[in-house]
Amino acid sequence: MATPTLVLRGSEGIQFISNAPKKSYNPGGSKVTVVDNRKTCNCMLFSGDGSLFAWCNGETVTIQSVADNVVIATINKPKTSFLKFSPKSSVLCTWEMYAVTKDNPQGCQNLNLWDVKTGDLLRALVQKRNHNWHPQWTEDEEITARNVNNEVHFFEKNVFDSFANKLHLQKVSEYSLAPVTSPCHIAAYVPGSKGAPSFVRIFCYPNFDGPQAAIANRSFFKAERINMYWNHKGTAVLVLTSTEMSDSSYYGEQSLHFLATSGESCLVPLAKKGPIYSIQWVPKSKSGDFCIVYGYMPAKATIFNMKNEPVFDFATGPRNAVYFNCHGNICCLAGFGNLRGNVEFWDIKGKKKISNPTADDSTDIKWCPDGEHIVTATTAPRLRVSNGYKIWHYSGMLVDLHLTSQKHELWEVLWRPVPEGTFSEKSVDHHPISAPTSLQQQQPATNVEAYRPPGAKGKPSTFKVHEEEPVTSGAATEGMSKAALKNKKKREAKKAKQDQSGGESAPGDQSRQLPSAPSSGQMSANQSSDPEVAKRAKNLQKKLQAIEKLKQLQAEGKQLEKNQLEKISSEDKLLEELDKLGL
């Protein structure tokens, strides 16, 4: 029976921890194997099926077979910072910092492609940036793509002597190759310039020429950088656009666009304003669903289908990331970084929350290949205190806990991948289980007392900073939102109050007058309660002010045009509409 393997990289070197995480705590049951005890291990990586393991220790890059611990190849690249295996583990890419020296004024070839079986160098290239530094392959490795000087070059069958085809677009800066085998689709991004919009186009290899070559196109403004996310079938891609700063927010703006290989494209509708934190396609979803975590805190999390319709809403909460297990039946919503470490496990098929543990001070989280456990880690250099890892069962139980000593640091945690089908999908258990007392006592003590602002002192403990929204199934944007319903009730109550006091007003007060412009305080209050109502009221007031000026001109004896007379005749209708708004 296969057992999950956890790998640690830190100041103590690289260690393999071989022991299947159990649902009950088993102290001392882990088998630790030291792969490399050097303190200078820069990076490590598994192949896609977990059969090979590569790492750089500051002296060489080593490729090793995991099953028998036999070294397959040793590469003399001590400054390697990043590693990347091709999908079928035929090629290993290494990248190091680009440098210019006196001996080599044109710069070094810092991107190298190696044959995994022989260790021979296949091609040496120059890649100055580490953003999207490695080439991209199709699943069968028949096609390889790389961005070179505003062109995307394509290589076939891992022959890198010369490219077989190329896609040329003016100033193409990003591309993304669909992970499937055939047909091969590629999404290319061209940033806007001189008032022209940015755009993303999808092509089918090798049809790149002609005005009708693009099978899907989406243009947009406000995009300084983008991220592209293909679904597992390679039939649709999500494009996240971002700006550094905007007129409405110091933190910039984001939007999400949907493109399909069938030619469809649209903007994904989001029910709450704010940043987009995390995007992930649901694995093995028949309807092609994807989940988004977005909006100002407390953030919303919503699952959409391929028609960009919301099918399930997880309500609001302190989260900024979403992770699905390999089976796609359990979802983990987490809040790390500047959030406390709230973790939520959800049963996707049952649409029900399973558990809600808290992993304090976590900087990383990864699903175990068995689909039942996750590991949360506190790593350096993000946090240099209380480095270590915790293994959790989706029921919320803490299964294992390891803390590094004060003189050592933990830098990275990885699960060894396994071939698809190694672990079968199991039914979800909703019974909560708590960790044994012996394991709970090992956790570092944390201050669980919530912060209470000065204005909340002396108030009941039910005080809430944010208004929480309920879990909804189906279209989350159908009908009026909760804020709109609340504002509607306020307007109805205000109008009823005016109706009750209307009969007591003096006859002289019944004469209609042009409503004066509201003060800045009143206008800001209206805008904060319902922006649409305040916007409509402002437009009506402008029209009434224009009518008043026309009436003054008419009184002075100036002859008015037909359209100006029609504006004056619409005064009663505008006043009636303004009265209905309750302002």
List the helices and strands and how they pair.
Blueprint: E1 5-10, E2 13-18, E3 31-36, E4 43-46, E5 52-56, E6 61-65, E7 71-75, E8 82-85, E9 91-95, E10 111-115, E11 121-125, E12 136-137, E13 143-148, E14 151-156, E15 165-168, E16 174-177, E17 185-190, E18 198-204, E19 216-220, E20 225-230, E21 236-242, E22 254-260, E23 265-267, E24 276-281, E25 290-294, E26 299-304, E27 310-317, E28 321-324, E29 330-335, E30 342-347, E31 352-355, E32 364-367, E33 373-378, E34 388-393, E35 398-403, E36 410-415, H1 437-440, E37 472-473, H2 482-502, H3 520-529, H4 531-555, H5 562-569, H6 571-580
Antiparallel strand pairs: 1-2, 1-36, 2-3, 4-5, 5-6, 6-7, 8-9, 9-10, 10-11, 12-13, 13-14, 14-15, 16-17, 17-18, 18-19, 20-21, 21-22, 22-23, 24-25, 25-26, 26-27, 27-37, 28-29, 29-30, 30-31, 32-33, 33-34, 34-35
Summarize the biggest pleated sheet.
5 strands, antiparallel
- Taken as a percent bin, the fraction of beta residues is 25-35%
> Radius of gyration from the CA trace?
30 Å
Helix-residue proportion: 10-25%
Work out the number of β strands.
37
Our count of helices gives: 6
Large-scale geometry: globular
For the largest beta sheet, what order do the strands appear in spatially?
A: 24-25-26-27-37
Structural class: alpha+beta
- Termini separation comes to 71 Å
Average residue-wise pLDDT = 81
The low-confidence parts are: 24-28, 475-479, 503-528
